[in-house]
Amino acid sequence: MIKKVILFLILISTLTGCQNNEVVSIIKKDKSMISIHYPITNVKSLNSSINSYVNKIYKDFKNIENNFNNPELNISYTYKQLNKDIINLSLTTQIYTDKKINKIKTFTYDKRKKKFLEIEDIVENVKTLDYDVKQTILEKYKEADMDFLSNINYDYFTIDNRNLTLYFNPIQLNKQNEFINLDISLDSLNLLINIDKEKDNVPDIKPKEKSIDYNKKVVALTFDDGPSKYTKEILNILKKHDSCATFFVVGNKVEFYKNDLQRMIKEGSEIGNHSYSHKWLNRLSKDEFINEINKTQEIIKNLTGYLPKIFRPTYGGYNDNLKTYTNLRFVLWNVDSQDWKVKNTNKILKNILPNVKDGSIILMHDNHSYSYEALDELIVELKKENYQFVTVSELFKIKELRNN
Ligand code: ZN
Fold first, then answer.
1. Which of 306, 303, 311 is nearest to 327 (CA)?
2. Given 200, 226, 288, 349, which residue has the most CB atoms within 10 angstroms?
3. Global pTM value
4. If pLDDT is split at 50, 70 and 90, which confidence band does 237 have?
């Protein structure tokens, strides 16, 4: 019980932290698998609406988790700055117990008007929209409930450069647990707000040139579950020691850490794919799995011009079938820092140093401060033992060259 209370307090304190343009990221596995991600914006009232929504879901989940095997809570988000004043944000929740529950919640906030916007503030003639939507729903979902159709609401929507997407929670529309979304082309609507077109110039970043002695000992540092506010500090330490690492990033966060991702490539580190929303892979359908991979590939490519070649399974677990659905190479580790568990520099070093061998892959995490605090000393110690730091892909290449 004490543990539960403490965890909850940690969550609350994380939720109420108020920084701009950070992502709150909680990934842990104990009684349950929990992966919660959402942004902290520079709007207080928006942050507090998000916090109370997430807190409620978390609390409800904690109350029922003991009744099930392998329960899982996953909250992911989308964030879009529509123009300099208006933010549109969605939170999607999946809860796995003996069934799967999907929820969606969206927020649209106008900083200039200091208010949350409804569909009526965005689209000129909602009546026309309403007519079209009902027609489409009736065609698509024969089982759509007439009560639902007559009381249909447009509380949940996201907007990108092409579409207005409307969401309906499953309970409102059909008996299945998938929520339903309808894309409506922006060209077919009269909008009451301006939407800035994104400039999607893919940057052309030159990766750092390196010289590696294939005959000398090598080791690969890897960081999972980032990026986060600590990633920058980790990159600074790597740069100071002219070393590198491989970052297995969670796709839904990377847009907030664009500079860090670009630095990874520029400064000789590697970016790997660690899925989009950090769900337990064994539960996903083929399409869901491919979607988790591809969304992450696409967003990394757009931000850095680099396309990852390696994938690290979430929670370290997967079945071999999944490997046939992607060209990415699956990468685990052979030295585990246990940083998230021991939370202490000396213990982290003790978990790593005696176990490192030529060709080791070391697992650490960059979504908390523990590994970052141990990193400087770790690099110094390994350099004393004449290790060269390489990325995971370089490590594979070296092993191949040595075998030939
Ligand atoms: Zn992970």
1. 311
2. 226
3. 0.89
4. very high
Q: Which of 224, 225, 339, 366 is catalytic?
A: 224
Give the residues across from 163 on adjacent strands. Answer: 185
pLDDT in tens, 280-320: 999 999 999 999 999 999 999 999 999 999 999 999 888 89
Cα-based angle 35, 257, 271 (whole degrees, multiple of 5): 80
Distance from residue 275's CA to the centre of ligand 1 (Å)? 9
Of 275, 245, 255, the C-alpha closest to 364 is 245
* Alpha carbon of 1 to ligand 1 centroid (Å): 26
82 Cα to the center of ligand 1, angstroms: 30
Quick check: is 155 catalytic? Answer: no
Question: What letter would DSSP give residue 191?
Answer: B
Distance 315 CA to ligand 1 centre (A): 5
Q: What is the pLDDT of residue 14?
A: 46
Strands (E), 137-229: 157-159, 163-168, 180-185, 218-224
104 Cα–ligand 1 center, Å: 23
Beta strands, E only, 97-162: 100-110, 115-116, 157-159
Top-ranked range on mean pLDDT: pick from 51-60, 91-100, 185-194: 51-60
Q: Identify the active-site residue in 37, 278, 365, 368.
A: 365
Mean pLDDT value of segment 177-200: 85
Determine how many CB atoms are found less than 10 A away from the CB of residue 291: 15
CB 55 within 8 A of CB 71: no
Going from the Cα of 225 to the center of ligand 1, the distance in angstroms, rounded, reads: 5
The tokens for 289 are 């799995």
For tokens 């986060």, the residue is 228
User: Is position 37 annotated as part of the catalytic site?
Assistant: no
Q: ∠ CA(47), CA(224), CA(210), 5° rounding?
A: 120
> b/e for 210-230, b at 16 or more Cβ within 10 A?
eebeeeeebbbbbbbbbbbbb
- pLDDT digit string (tens) for 346-366? 999 999 999 999 999 999 999
SS3 content of the chain, % helix, strand, coil (to 5): 40, 25, 35
